[in-house]
Amino acid sequence: MLYFERWKVALIVLLCFAGLAYSAPNFIPRASLENVPGWLPNKQINLGLDLRGGSYMLLGLDTGGLEQSRLQDLVNEVRNALRDVRVPYTGLGIQGGMVTVNITRAEDVEKARVAIDDLATTVSGNAFSGMPERDLLVRAVGQRIEVVVTEAAKLAQLQAAVEQSIEIVRRRIDELGTTEPVIQRQGADRILVQVPGLEDPQQLKALLGRTARMNFRLVSNAMSAQQAIATRTVPAGTEILYSADEPREPFLVERRIMVGGDRLRDASPGFDQRTGQPVVNFRFDSIGGRQFGEVTRENVGRPFAIVLDNEVISAPRINEPIMGGSGQISGNFTVQEATNLAILLRSGALPVDITILEERTVGPGLGADSIAAGEIAALIGALAVIVFMIASYGFFGVLAVVALALNVLMLFGILSVLQATLTLPGIAGIVLTIGMAVDANVLIYERIREEVAAGKGPIPAIETGYNKALSSILDANITTLISAAILFQMGTGPVRGFAVTLAIGIITSVFTAYTVNRLMISVWLRRSRPKAITL
User: Fold this and answer.
1) Which 8-state DSSP code applies to residue 194?
2) What percent of the chain stands above pLDDT 90?
């Protein structure tokens, strides 16, 4: 039916009004939005790094450190395996990128090889075979056993480290309160980070440049750090670490970790009630709280070191047992340093050291130029479409132009509701939408022309024109929508931005061209009741 029931008219008008309402904040200065009541639409489209400016970083993972860490863990596993089967050995260590151990008795070599071989697990196979592979290759050369980490295991470990690092980096950046950061893998061992609108890139650098491996250890009472340095004698089971503050003070700390940082459940910045200095308050989980309580109860009077990335950030003295599972870290922090440290501890430690390979700060001037160029392109495209439609279809072309304006406003409204990030390719998607938006109107109007030429009256011609054009409109737009979906699924960053604006533009174009435009023609027919139409 050409004419709509009242509920359909109400629904169409409501959708158009909602699109206008949610698009309006995008045309209001950001500062003025603070005066808009909270119950009114007040969200603007987020601008991407290329439009708003911000920070760009390329992070590289220390793959050498990752492999070394795996070998060190493997040394401990081999030691425990040989102890379990009571095989004496010597020379257990890392040599030539593998773990080697000498078995004392020749008759125990096979027994030791089997015990070590049981440590191997399976990992996903390569892309060609698809078969699972073992992560360890164990071979005996005389009385020497060599344990090699396979390439499949290294690849799987790297993949897991990258995925975990991306998640931790995302958690750290989310703590800054930024909107729509881009965090994605680049190559085998790199992570691309883009944070639009971040005004303090140094804060981002401070957050991402630290591994944040934290642990609690006792300060050794065998001798002072100064004595160990002077005599060049470090007691077994200890090491010298330096403070993070300047001047760097040495500490002789035990290697044994009393409580690991993985037991931290929460961390937040605060102020010491006695001194008023910024501190970081922390809380352990149930296991960490019990371990912390036992350590402090057994070592009252001794200092313990809070170690972060092999630097001592604080070394307070244990005055009494701390049984509540919570504590406080002080270290001459500024408020910003305490906030950053709390973020690092809350987000967790990175599985591998990260290096900032490339760092750029993109100024908003580039974004302003891009937005201005996009506005000019959109304006030229819109004017060309308006002139073509009015020149080709007269009054019906005017109605198509009105529908086009509603289409663009609804597109902005939906992007605002979704809080999508608009990038330069996204602007290209909007310009493309403007050009494609009248395709449906052209199909409809040409069908109506054919019906008028066949001698039908206004209402039958328009009704038939809309019905016959619908299948062509759906075919053309569904295929484009599928392409946009594939771009969104397979693409990254700006490509996804283009796909989002294109997909939303297709939906709003079909709605305004077929439904809103049809409603306007229906109202015109009711009021004017023309005897004939000209197209």
Assistant:
1) E
2) 5
Q: Are the CB atoms for 149 and 72 separated by under 8 Å?
A: no
Model confidence pLDDT, tens digit, residues 19-29: 888 887 877 77
Instruction: Kindly tell me the burial class for residue 141, based on how many C-beta atoms sit within 10 Å of its own C-beta (0-12, 13-18, 19 or more).
Output: exposed
Question: Any alpha helices (H) in 282-420, and if so which ranges?
Answer: 286-298, 335-347, 364-393, 395-418
CB 48 within 8 A of CB 421: yes
pLDDT of 30-85, one tens digit each?
666 667 776 777 777 777 777 777 788 888 888 877 888 888 888 888 988 898 89
Give first-to-last CA distance, the chain, whole Å.
Answer: 21
Average model confidence (pLDDT) for the chain? 83
Amino acid at 498: F
Written as six digits, the tokens of 341 are 């440290």
State how beta strands 214-218 and 304-308 pair. Answer: antiparallel
Q: What are phi and psi of 17, to 5 degrees?
A: -65, -40
CA dihedral 372, 192, 207, 68 (to 10 degrees): -170
Residue labelled with tokens 């440049």: 209
Both tokens assigned to 145: 């056993």
